[in-house]
């Protein structure tokens, strides 16, 4: 086949370039699939939270989060648990800590694409150098009177340069595209987390954990903890 002929003319440098292209395709397809489904799950979860957040209904936020386990709900529940444990001032720090553990999931393996985008043109440049070296060796041996003998080195130089750029350009575009999806997911989670923190702060100012009735409920891990029956604002104790 013609493609294998071209690869053969490109010399040994073409093999790592081809390997880079295979890795790029594998990582891009896997990440696109994962991020696409993650985006849909997070959107459904946050959409279901919107009404409860607007109504300042922390109990419903808890119920929805327990029914939708995932990175977004774990981050939000980390802050809510601090409120339920009587330390609402630590809610933001708890959310940030869990976010640092969960967010890398969305950026997983994107560094591989960044690396390929960097090394592919360098491999092409290396092939250019080796091709020119081969050409000059021919010139040194037989002079410039036989262009066909020189064509192999020149062909190697041009093919590897073109191949390196052909891999680097789509990899840069693919990396940017996936990074934007991941960033949008994380921004949506951060926005919802900030809104839940506002509810916790309002409750802390109005009643803290005092004057709020509790019932036993199970969290997603099956551990019992106090959950407020109602989070409507009550008059602050004198």
Which helices and strands appear, and what pairs or packs with what?
Layout: H1 2-9, H2 14-54, H3 58-67, H4 71-84, H5 91-102, H6 110-142, H7 147-206, E1 214-218, E2 224-228
Antiparallel strand pairs: 1-2
GO cellular component, one term: plasma membrane
Organism: Atribacter laminatus
Subcellular location: Cell membrane; Membrane
3D structure, described in words:
This is Biopolymer transport protein ExbB. This protein has about 240 residues and is mainly alpha-helical. It has one domain (about 1-210). Helices cover about 75% and strands about 5% of the residues. It is built from 7 helices and 2 strands; from the N terminus they run αααααααββ. The chain has a two-stranded antiparallel ribbon with strand order 1-2. The radius of gyration is 29 Å and the shape is rod-shaped. The model is unreliable at about 210-238 (pLDDT under 50).
- Helix fraction? over 70%
Rg calculated over all Cα atoms: 29 Å
SS-based class: mainly alpha
Topology, number of strands: 2
The largest sheet, given as strand count, sense and whether it forms a barrel, is:
2 strands, antiparallel
What is the helix tally? 7
What order do the strands of the largest sheet run in, or round the barrel if closed? 1-2
Low-confidence stretches: 208-238
Please write the string of helix (H) and strand (E) elements: HHHHHHHEE
CA-based shape: rod-shaped
User: For the terminal residues, how far apart are their CA atoms?
Assistant: 86 Å
| Mean pLDDT rating | 81
């Amino acid at each position: 086949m013609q493609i294998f002929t071209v690869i053969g003319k490109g010399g040994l440098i073409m093999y790592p370039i081809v390997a880079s292209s295979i890795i790029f395709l594998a990582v891009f397809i896997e990440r696109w699939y994962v991020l696409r489904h993650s985006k849909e799950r997070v959107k459904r979860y946050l959409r279901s939270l919107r009404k409860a957040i607007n109504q300042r209904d922390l109990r419903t936020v808890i119920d929805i989060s327990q029914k939708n386990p995932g990175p977004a709900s774990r981050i939000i529940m980390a802050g809510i648990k601090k409120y339920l444990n009587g330390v609402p001032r630590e809610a933001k720090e708890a959310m940030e800590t869990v976010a640092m553990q969960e967010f890398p999931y969305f950026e997983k393996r994107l560094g591989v694409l960044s690396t390929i985008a960097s090394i592919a043109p360098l491999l092409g440049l290396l092939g250019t150098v080796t091709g020119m070296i081969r050409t000059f060796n021919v010139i040194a041996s037989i002079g410039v009177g036989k262009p066909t003998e020189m064509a192999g080195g020149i062909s190697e130089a041009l093919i590897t340069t073109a191949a390196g750029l052909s891999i680097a350009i789509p990899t840069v575009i693919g990396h940017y595209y996936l990074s934007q999806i991941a960033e949008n997911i994380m921004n949506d989670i951060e926005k919802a987390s900030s809104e839940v923190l506002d509810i916790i702060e309002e409750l802390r100012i109005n009643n803290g954990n005092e004057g709020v009735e509790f019932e036993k409920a199970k969290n997603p891990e099956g551990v019992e903890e106090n959950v407020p029956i109602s989070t409507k604002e009550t008059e602050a104790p004198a």
